[in-house]
Task: structure prediction
Amino acid sequence: MITGRADAIPGLATAFRLHGYEGASLAAITRHTGLGKGSLYNFFPGGKEEMANAVLDEVGLWFETHVYRSLQNQDVPAAERLTSMAGAVEEYFSSRHLVCLYGSFALGQERERFAQQIAGYFTAWIQAITEALPGPAQEAEALATDFVATVQGALILARALDDPPVLHSTVARSLRHLTSLAGPDKAR
Amino acid sequence: MITGRADAIPGLATAFRLHGYEGASLAAITRHTGLGKGSLYNFFPGGKEEMANAVLDEVGLWFETHVYRSLQNQDVPAAERLTSMAGAVEEYFSSRHLVCLYGSFALGQERERFAQQIAGYFTAWIQAITEALPGPAQEAEALATDFVATVQGALILARALDDPPVLHSTVARSLRHLTSLAGPDKAR
DNA sequence: GACCACTTGTACCGATCGGTAAAGGCGCGT
DNA sequence: ACGCGCCTTTACCGATCGGTACAAGTGGTC
Result:
């Protein structure tokens, strides 16, 4: 255990995922974390905003170490890196109620409060994909943006239709647009 | 004026768009509609849930008359119908804070309460596009699903990056996937 | 065992939540 | 002018909101 905060973050994350930022009442947070208000305000004196910041940072760190970094691994062909990135992202959201916290926060009016972190998350993701793609940067960035948007939309659609497999099928098709550019020699 | 309800719906819609379902307090709703609580509960005895239902119905009706129906107009080539559909959708969300109410509701825990209407909205949209596309239905439905997901994701991305043009550029590229299938024989 | 820093439970705060009740205003048909 | 029905205002309800204060634990160090 590094800090008492760290143990609370998974519970905080599910609370924010299930209820959104504004909808996550302290009562719901104590339920999901198993911690009383006293403990929560001991670890996060800044209240709900600090809790949300800690969760966002943790999610951002996970993507940085598991997604962006492996996208830069030059020992593996680009198409393969992109495919494993897509798989990791699918698995991540599938086991987390099909909710991207950054996407959820971007939709609410809490967007302004966390604007920098939200924008930073998506630009980092898009940039990591862009750098793994060959060809002119402008075209690669467009493809990367389309992929990220499709993932976010597929999450919404999977929840809206109450049909989790929609995430995989949609992301798989979007991934093909990336790999067909990254691996023309590798394909077939 | 058909009913007193109708006049309140635009204000209700922006209230729900800006604050989400749970975040839209009655105080915020009175602010956006200019109506007091008494008037609101006179028009919507069922409270917030009935207000949200009325707004969702109105949005669904708009899409039905402006989007789905024009997609069925056989007098116009399919590619052109799809293009004007994309333009209408872009314009619709651009002038409404880049928020799709159904997408917003799908993300929160209010999803269960409005599950049927949410699922119905997206299936109707996907089906309308599917029927405007040639070729095997399964393939067309996949393309239609990708388009709808991309629109939803582009909305999130445009808000997340605080960059409204992202909606147009992303949707335009996604539209090309549809028209390239619909247009080769019909085009020109 | 005394001490101390950290953690926890509990009581409490003013503000706001969604919703209700009822009295008064208003326009309209007669 | 009158009565009637719809609409609006206003006051109020209990519950819950995010946040604070503080006393009582808790475990480790000498």
